[in-house]
Amino acid sequence: MDATEPRVPVVVVDDLHVKYRVFASGKAAGNARSGLLNMTRGIREVHALKGVSFTAYENETIGVIGSNGSGKSTLMRALTGLTPPAAGAVYARSRPNLLGVGAALLPNLSGSRNIVLGGLAMGFTREEVETLKGDIAAFAELGDSIDLPMRTYSSGMQARLKFSIASARSHDILIVDEALAVGDKRFRKRSEARIRELATEAGTIFLVSHSMSSIRDTCDRTIWINQGVLQMDGPTDEVVTAYEGVRR
Ligand SMILES: Nc1ncnc2c1ncn2[C@@H]1O[C@H](COP(=O)(O)OP(=O)(O)OP(=O)(O)O)[C@@H](O)[C@H]1O
């Protein structure tokens, strides 16, 4: 992109807080006189995101990293609107899509039938699905297995098919959560290339991953979430190097 071109903001996250309320197994305090149980003692609050702020721009591919339980998935669910903020806000140009068609696929149907089903579930018309069917099957590289029921596929084969269906459509704002961790190395390289292609075709991509090589190969910018706080936000190389430094 030309450095003099004004950057178009696509997602603005403003001082976002997310809290979960969970019932912890503990001693519920009894109130002898009323006979009612005081359950409040058993409710624990997890403050999963504590004031996260950043702006994502058009055509950026942003890596999201952090250790287990740091708040990455919570942040992504908040972007899609699935998890409501306790405070702060998320503003987005259009609704961010989570890459995935998992729920729509049926194990007893063949790969080809699932391509049609998954395509329709993603909002393609019948004609569009018919046109794209061949490309989706070719990208998945499942050979003759494409005519076998999906329940006979290995988890890697299923992941390939899901990725191929989900990435057939370009999205304005796309969230890819660990989808690349499955599949073999060659497929991972091809899916990374496909993600870069989607980023140029359309808008903005968030890639959540524990694979630093995927993040380095795919993202120009990376945000690091640590215990619910935005620890660092900047060029991928700098952020990943700092992250790997503290994990050593
Ligand atoms: N539905 C939920 N109810 C209660 N607590 C939750 C819920 N989902 C997540 N949490 C808590 O919120 C915190 C952040 O979890 P989150 O799943 O966002 O982390 P993450 O960075 O995506 O982790 P991972 O790398 O393991 O996928 C954790 O402490 C987790 O236990």
From TrEMBL:
It comes from the Bacteria. Pfam families: ABC_tran (PF00005). Keywords: ATP-binding, Nucleotide-binding, Transport. CDD domains: ABC_KpsT_Wzt. Residues 34-248 form the ABC transporter domain. The keyword Transport applies. InterPro entries: AAA+_ATPase (IPR003593), ABC_transporter-like_ATP-bd (IPR003439), ABC_transporter-like_CS (IPR017871), ABC_transpr_TagH-like (IPR015860), Bact_Polysacc_Export_ATP-bd (IPR050683), P-loop_NTPase (IPR027417). One of its GO terms (cellular component) is membrane. Signal peptide: none annotated. GO terms for molecular function: ABC-type transporter activity; ATP binding; ATP hydrolysis activity. Belongs to the ABC transporter superfamily. This is Teichoic acid transport system ATP-binding protein. It comes from Tessaracoccus bendigoensis DSM 12906.
